[in-house]
Queue: 2 jobs
Job 1
Amino acid sequence: MAEAHPVGFQYVVEAKNRGARVIHVDPRFTRTSALAHTYVPMRAGADIAFLGGVINYILANEKDFREYVVAYTNASMIVGEDFQDTEDLDGLFSGFDPDLRVYDQSTWQYAGQGDVGQPEGAAHADRETASGLEQESHGPPVPADVPRDPTLQHPRCVYQILRRHYARYTPEVVERVCGVPRDQFLEVCAAWTANSGRERTTALVYSVGWTQHSVGVQYIRAGAIIQLLLGNMGRPGGGVMALRGHASIQGSTDIPTLFNLLPGYLPMPHHRQHETFRQWVDAIRHPEQQGFWANAEAYAVSLLKAYWGDAARPENDWGYGWLPRLTGDHGTYQQVLDMIDGRIKGYFLLGQNPAVGSAHGKAQRLGMANLDWLVVRDLFEIESATFWKDGPEVATGEIVPERCRTEVFLMPAASHAEKEGTFTQTQRLLQWREKALDPPGDCRSELWFFHHLGRLVRERLAGSTRPRDQGILNLTWPDEEPSGEDVLREINGFDVVTGEPVPNFTALKADGSTACGCWIYSGVFQDGVNQAARRKPGSEQDWVAREWGWAWPSDRRTLYNRASADPEGRPWSERKKYVWWDPDAGEWTGYDVPDFEKNKPPGYRPPDGATGVEAISGDDAFIMQGDGKGWLYAPSGLIDGPLPAHYEPAESTVRNPLYGRQANPTHKVYDRADSPINPRSAVYPYVFTTSRLTEHHTAGGMSRQLAYLSELQPEMFVEVSPELATERGLEHRGWAHIVTTRAAIEARVMVTDRLRPLRVDGRVVHQIWLPYHWGGQGLVTGDSANDLIGIALDPNVLIQESKAGTCDIRPGRRPTGGDLLAYVEQYRRRAENNDG
Amino acid sequence: MTGNSLYGPLDPAPDAGWTDAPPRMGFFTDTSVCIGCKACEVACKEWNLVPDDGFDLLGTSYDNTGGLSANSWRHVAFIEQRGAPHGDVLGAAAGPQFLGMPGRDLPGRDPDAPRTDFRWLMMSNVCKHCTHAGCLDVCPTGSLFRTEFGTVVVQEDICNGCGYCIPACPYGVIDQRGDDGRAWKCTLCYDRIGDGLSPACATACPTQSIQYGELSQLRERAADRVAHLHGQGVGEARLYGHDPSDGVGGDGAFFLLLDEPEVYGLPPDPIVPTRDLPAMWRRAGLAGLAMAAAVVVSFLGGRP
Amino acid sequence: MSRGSPRGGRGRGRGGDRPMVPPAEFRSYYGRPIVRPPVWHHDIAAYLFTGGLAAGSALLAAGGDATGRPALRRAGRVTALGALVASTYFLINDLGRPARFHHMLRVAKPTSPMSMGTWILSAFGAAAGVSAVAEAAPLLPGPLRRLLPPLGTAGQYGAAVLAPALATYTAVLLADTATPSWHAAYPELPLIFGGSALASGAGVGLIAAPPSEAGPARRMAVLGAAFELYGAHRVETTKGILSEPYTRGRAGRWLRAGRALTVLGVAGAVLGRRSRVVSALSGASLLAASLATRFGVFDGGVASAADPKYTVIPQRERLARRAEDGQPVRDPRAT
């Protein structure tokens, strides 16, 4: 965190000064470790074993916050009889289809609900479209009347299933799998549990590298299970916080740059599953379901009204037919392979540098070299704009500039200081940013670019009667370039007759009388005021600081904060009071906006047959969930299982010590020659992981062009332990090259005790660390670490496994030109023949 | 010049002739919360338009700046240490060493052998703005001057690059810029603090490792901080440059360190060279008299 | 690596005969210097020589004139001016901004030996210049021919009065730095530089003057050499670890060469007094000796700044002594 989020780390420092204990778990000793009380080194890719160990510790020692767990989680829910765990099936859950490598999730359901599961083949489609998790975030179809055992004794209740599932994650196993000494692991468990409960809460903060695994979603799930068991969700000082990789990455999922989502987490319609507007809307809201997604039709109609204005009418299903449809996997890696295959002709890159920043750099560059056109909007002439003339493949002869067909349009972009708008950070806080200065020269904002691009496209299409053009021609597209605030106003939503901003999403209507660009952001322009621009200093308000910026939904600073009070609505403790029920006033009150219906008393129980908001009980703190409970166990929605289980990374040097299944049985790979995966082989004997340096920004496009940053970390380097340096004859500050089945890259050697060998399952595992900031352009250049990484994806969200891989490292520089290809090929052959 | 002006505790701005000088301003750099982000280095260069210092991978942990120089007015030191710190350098036999390169006896060669604690110390170094500033004392042009805030600043339109200030600094801070010939160093953002702003580095520091303020208050805060850290069991915390009775009359920019000063590249007991200047002039006078006497003897003594 | 094991680093100083724990090792930041070595080039080392030569020559001229030795007077006056011109060149050439050399004259600052030296050099230059030009009086037209000699005489004595200051302020110039071996040598450096100046002036006399006039120059050589050798011996032996840089490497070679040349020059001057050739050679040897000594002292200081052990160990010893003396409060004056 200190390494990649130094500004945010000030709060860790402040907490430490106030007596907080800081523990840092990381494969390498970083700047964060330097300030931590305890540094715990561990093997990259073994996190679920570690977290599972913590869960086991909590359950075995009954350290869970029992009242919280019973009231607010699904611990007491009883699961169907047919469910079988990884314990029973040696690493598989019940319902596995070995041909498609997906699960039929019907046996995972709560008792009596088995038939509510997904239709045949749905899980496969969900993996293709990365939409499995939609069902979790949207609340999957779970009726409210699930059998429960509040004593948690029923053998098939979630609590007992959890106990059995994690029983084998003992401290000894953690030591064997992660390389973390037992006593150090127990120290972490003791600290985490001691700092959780009625009087205290613990925050779990991770950086998004945690997600970049073939079981990435389950990493986060495992963290969430711990936080739920310890009562750390919905309470001040608790939570699971993702530190994003850039400003407003949270914003770019809220109003997404993802292929499978529309604003506000409305799913992008699928051409077969959502043929009609009704199918689409019902798939979101699930008519029998409780919770706030029941109003999804209002959000959907308002979005379509925002897109198409008066052209969106009830008779044309609000223009639903104009929305693009998913036909399968359109994820970034599938797209790259499609480019290589000539199936994608044009590409826009906006502040993204896949030639350096995305896994399997060679595939990225070869794909882009096979387009008709490529638009690159960036601050500098980055590698993704120059790969055709000076990329690594030019040196190897794989790209011949004279014959490269791609026409690159480099459009100079304005920086964040040169345009206005909002950033949305990890707490879902929108913070308005003023323009500090005009962009230089021809640099322009995205708003300018897309306004004029849309205008010009619409001019070209004017008068067209082709059906496919109507969606564009009917868009509400102003003639004048709108301001950032104009856009925010539309995002907030407005009454289509009066133009007045709506106060929040509960005012959105399904009858076409409101338009709203993103329902969860509704309220950001409440009262016609840009709420995101509020900047009252923290010293002038209470500690929740509600007059700084604006948080979605409805300015709630802590989600699910109903859980900060006990089932009767009283604060769990004076020290941790946050939101509570005021019986005299008959309303929820507190420091934050209650994330609950304001006047629904704690004792409210829904009448039989209730659905939607009405079905939410007075103690259903997790109001977006279909059953109102925090999910320790996910009865549906996750493609790779209802509970996190430890699988080895797709590329690993060790055999899975826990199960017969080596890797995530459902993880996604593209089985083709140009997307190879290292086999487990002595040819690739070392583990490597990548991350950032404070001094550079991601793929380096913004930092390697600046002298003041470049001088601070001027060269690509690789960190190795003194032991590995001895083993491989690596010399401090000398050259070394690192080899995987995809590439060999070179780097200067940093021999440091910040990396240390681990003893894993009886043998020594060496880990190598690489920063991934370098490429061929800029003041300082070097090979790209991402060239080493393969395309192995998490099945739920299709994120690449870029934080754990296997490799070899050798002293000296790598071969160049055609020799480089031969060198990598020779490694590949040796690995296939298992010729260590 | 009073005798005390060369040495001992005093308030430098009034001593330099400022009447109604504002309180003395300075830095307290608390290395115990430094995360080595180098924001100070960058902010300093951005504000002061200091050129880059070259693109060299030094291999000295994450320090690729190397030290304070004409082109780096803040410098973040990185020290990788194995083993517990030892208090007294003179007495102890084993000390932490740089681990950025392989030694003969590699740690953990036997994976079962326990490793000792590892520390990664970081510290943002800067000009000390001494009460008795060697650079200022010896500057022959008056380019270096004492500001009303008690800081020491080079006037770049005066400096003729004589270079005398450079060896006169007991901390090795001020430096000549190669392509420019003049001497450069931290100004404590003279052009900011005069407008009531904080220096660029302190403004950029995310963890308040660099604190700017009235020196008297900073000294109190620093004393509290040391006591706090000692209470937390960080016994190795100590202040450096805070003491007005030290060899430079106390630094305007002082530090909280977690090891001996020399580990960070700081002199353990700096003394302003000018302290001994009266004695030097006396010695020179005596030598001059001896010369004169020798000449007289030579011409008169041996006359045949 | 940050470890060092200084050899013979036993502390010496006011600690007297108190037993001292020799530092087993010292620590530093990657072996980087703590104090910054001077950025001066060998221009300054050369100036140390030419400045001393100017001073020694001016004294020679004054002595020669006062005792009726015209050859010494003439050689001294001309050499003083020549050395002065060379000095000015070296000083300006070494500036980072030579065009701003006149900024030196903005202030007169007693805490800055360079400022004081500038004024000494300026005054000396005016006086020595007049006295040297006066030597050309016989070649000049009437009024100047009459006017110049008395002015020249006045300038000559003025320069002679300033000469000791010119010769010794440079010692203060070097010593008033944090350069460890320069600063530690401050009690002796003026004597070395003064002696060296005398010896170089004497060298000029030995070269320029016939044996009949050269007697004072020989005695000046002996006395100057004595000062220089005594001072250098003290510096090389009594400064503890800080003597080391003067005995090692390039500095050591310069100083040993200087010592040998001094001895040679003095021996030649004393023993070869009847031979014009031997005398001249002796004079040249003394000049070379002075040059070598200056370069040696210069390089010794630079070497002491370049290695952090010369900064850390003496300061550590000082702290240890203070601790032993039971001085919890820092008072560096105790050293």
Job 2
Amino acid sequence: MSMLSVTPSLNLLNKDQIERIHHDSLEILATTGIRVDSPKAVALFKKFSCRVENKSQVFPEKELIEWAIKKAPSSVDIYSRTGQKSFTLGPGITKEQQNQTRFGIGVTNLHYQDPITDKTTPFTLDHMEIATRLGDALEEFDVISTPGIARDLPPESADLHAGLAMMANTKKPLVLLVSESNCFEPLLEMFETLHGELNKKPFVIPYFNPITPLVINQETSDKIMATAIRGMPFIYNNYGMSGATAPITPGATLTLLNAELLAGILFSQIVKEKTPVIAGSLPAGFDMKKMMSLYTPHTMLINLGCAEMMHHYGIPHSGTSGSGPGWGPDLLAGNCFWMNHLTSIMGKVGLCPFVGGNFDSMAFSPGAVVYANEVIRMSRIFAAGFSIDNKDVPLDEIKSIGSAGNFLMAPSTGKRFREFRLESPIWESLTLDEWQEKEMPKSGKILRKYTDDLIKKALPPDDHDEIMEKGRLFITGRF
Amino acid sequence: MKTEIFEKAMESILKGDAALAEETAKMGLGEGIDPIELINKGFIPGINKVGDLFGMGTLFLPELIQAANAMQGATDIINSAIPENSAQARGRVVIGTVAGDVHDIGKTIVVSLFKANGFEIKDLGRDVSVETFLKEADLFNADIIGTSALLTTTMPEQKKLEDALIEAGLKGKFKTMVGGAPVTRRWAKRIGADAFAENAGDGVRLARELLAK
Ligand code: B12
């Protein structure tokens, strides 16, 4: 990047600090180790000469971890359903693409908030369709992550119908969360049947968690094996609540979560070398009175710290998405979006996949998603910065206008004012008088109406019906 | 002397001071205080107060947990001084997160609050099968089986438990209590569970009601 372009960025950790966190993480793995619940996975760790105690406590050594970090791809290309490259995740990409944080709507909400009234109802398959089309229509969103749980369907097959609805209602890449473990492989098979191979031009990214602190559970290792064998990338995210499942201090939470990610990266590479793994943490605080997770300036710092660690390792990253405290598309939700989206974009965050869940990720709020789209848009403009080169700093023009002149008539104003204007597609600008004349409209009400209109207008992709038909056939053949 | 020891016992629990609680328990027994009186007049008022303060939002969870630990330490010492058959009947609860489900923080908090409210509680951990719930409830001589389910896909395990209880003719013997993010009062009613708890405090209140029945 030229010295004449001003591009703001946020950096937390210096080299020594990175080394320290890495060192302490290795120490955790070497002394506490990680519990691995799957005997098959333990056997693999053993095969790679890890020390194992009590059948399941695995102690990976420094050299092996560092081998895995080198083996894991430093970037992964993600494609649209129709095979166009959508974006690349990872620090191993070109300069221009660096720090392009990607966003998704999500995730696995149990309720849906009415766009106009905010009233919640159980999330259904129809909501799945609405949410996916909304995410598809909003430009700033790059992926769709399983927005909710279709609770109007039997739980043993709901994930399949939900996955199909996602696939049919967008061409954007999908981040996939599967609640019913028996649905996981059938769902991948359905995508393969409808789409062909998932590894060459991956448009589906499955999402898994270990259990903090320091457990790789059976289900997660089974899913990782099924995914890696197919050569697909996957997201490996740990969710730690400081003071509950992770240590209370930010430094210790960051270190512990980093240790878990290293163990996961290692596991991915011993299952199959060069498996693309997108790693990161969803750090949360824990409200010791209300018993729910919460997002604070500290949890955002841990998120950014984790992104820097992954950047340092050369591992594509996925982090937390700032959804949680809202009651609707409101100030509470907006607060957290700003804190998360702007810092993510300015930091080294790769993917923020889960924007849109209110009440600790219980209720999908379409209005919150639309609001977040604006936050992302502005954050992206902010992070793009500005230039101080000759073209952008025309000294001769300043000279010709001189003292006490104005720049309304300046040639560069005429030529470039469109580049620098900021207009909202949602709200018009109003003077105080105009606002009073219009009987004091509420900005939240306008946002809700805008959201509702957007939902009503959002159309499915042209191949929607065809995919739905083929998918239904697949599902009825199976269940 | 007696009242002083009772006050000290109460204070040790309120402060969550395990060392002081154990010391006071030993001191009380050493002074020849009847173990049941020692627990009922010293420690239980302390833990009840803690439960109330937590319920009112005055105490934070870590304080509650420290108090529950102190209580546990004192109770263990005192219980060993009580002859088996005269042990006091307190609510006995087994609790766990259902099979296929790893979410266990809510359940762990429920365990702490039940302890803090003087229940005898056995924590079965997470991913617990219906068979294990039945076996452990029997072994522990439980009054209540509490289950936590955080996924729509694991909620059916709570129904499986009800069915298994009916099948084994144990429906009256163990009361059941269900909880977890997707679980509702309606669901509890539908599957025939005896109670649905919105949160841990609710759980304690309902458990007391169930025991009184
Ligand atoms: C933390 C978390 C995780 C952690 C769990 C770590 C752990 N050790 O518990 C991890 C990351 C491992 C995880 C994994 C998954 N999760 Co999760 N998770 C959550 C999250 C964000 C918070 C849960 C929590 O701890 N809350 C705090 C505690 C204190 O509250 P609580 O559990 O509700 O308990 C209180 C009450 O409900 C009540 N209570 C609860 N049980 C009982 C029982 C009794 C007897 C009583 C009296 C009271 C009671 O008292 C408690 C205290 O007040 C929820 C969202 C949410 N807000 O609930 C999602 C959530 C439950 N998860 C969800 C999903 C989808 C998953 C995954 C499938 C994701 C994936 N990776 O594919 C996996 C499933 C793994 C599995 N098989 O179980 C969905 C549910 C979807 C569904 N189908 O129903 C939710 C709602 C997601 C969301 N939108 O964020 N998850």
